[in-house]
Amino acid sequence: MFNSLFKPQPLLPEEAVTWLFDGFAWALTNFGTDVFYNETILVEPSNTCFPGQGDSVNEMAELIVNQVKHFAGLDYLPLRVINHHEFDQASAALPDMRQVISDMKQGGSSALPLFFEPQQIANPNAMIANYAHGLAHHLGMLAREPAPCDEAQWPHMMELLAVYMGFGVMFVNTAIPERITCGSCRNPAMDRKGALDEMEVIYALAIFCALKEIPAKQAASHIKSYLRPLLKKAIKDVQLRSAALARLKAIDSVAQLRGKQVTEQSQLAPPS
């Protein structure tokens, strides 16, 4: 009885941990291990990662989205930010990333629209996370393989993809609205409506840190103080899962893509 009483409780149910590892495997396979290990960084909510100051809400929104686009490795992608309060859904046909890329190749000038809530200028963690989630949603549709989730889990998987892209700190900091003492002194519009819960996002960030060999102290320094012990515990838990980590580290999407191209070329080659 006493052994079970004092046994540490798992951070997440085992099926949730497996789902998160499977999501990272899908992302690494479809969006590039080379980019992930050599170019993706842990994006920090700081002036270092997000320099500059705009003269208006719209200018600030554009400054932030351009940095998000840069860290996501999508500098080439034309974007336009839209205040969702000013958007007339009835009269607009919005392109997705596939349409925008196709138009770019043909010399067109389409831009991918991303919506923002102007009051989130006062909560940049939420604005950054929402932009990253929007980009992940469009990027996820370009994957060569279907995501390991059903339709209802698509928003959750796209949040996981955004963590894989380097934005885990912002998702952790906004997974649950900040605890406040006065219900009238904060506007709910400033907060982000997340799909993954707080512990799921923390564990996803822990997988990212373990794969990128980012020290727990470095990542924890950028999240809410009461969550830091949970992140450090999650990173230790991930590191103990040697088989699951080895499976992710063994993925070489560059080699897989080359193999796929060779196979396709051999299928198209005329018979000798």
Provide a brief overview of the structure.
The protein is mainly alpha-helical.
Structure notes:
It is built from twelve helices and two strands. It is mostly helical and 272 residues long. It has one domain. Helix 2 packs parallel to helix 11, helix 4 crosses helix 6 and helix 8 (198-212) crosses helix 10.
Given the structure, what is the number of helices? 12
| Main beta sheet | 2 strands, parallel
Mean pLDDT: 85
* Percent of residues in β-strands: under 5%
Question: Which characteristics define this entry?
Answer:
2 strands; 12 helices; 272 residues; two-stranded parallel sheet; mainly alpha
Produce the secondary structure layout.
Layout: H1 2-5, H2 14-31, H3 33-38, H4 57-71, E1 79-83, H5 97-105, E2 112-116, H6 124-140, H7 154-174, H8 198-212, H9 216-220, H10 228-240, H11 242-249, H12 253-268
Parallel strand pairs: 1-2
Helix pairs in contact: 2-7, 2-8, 2-11, 4-6, 6-7, 7-8, 8-10
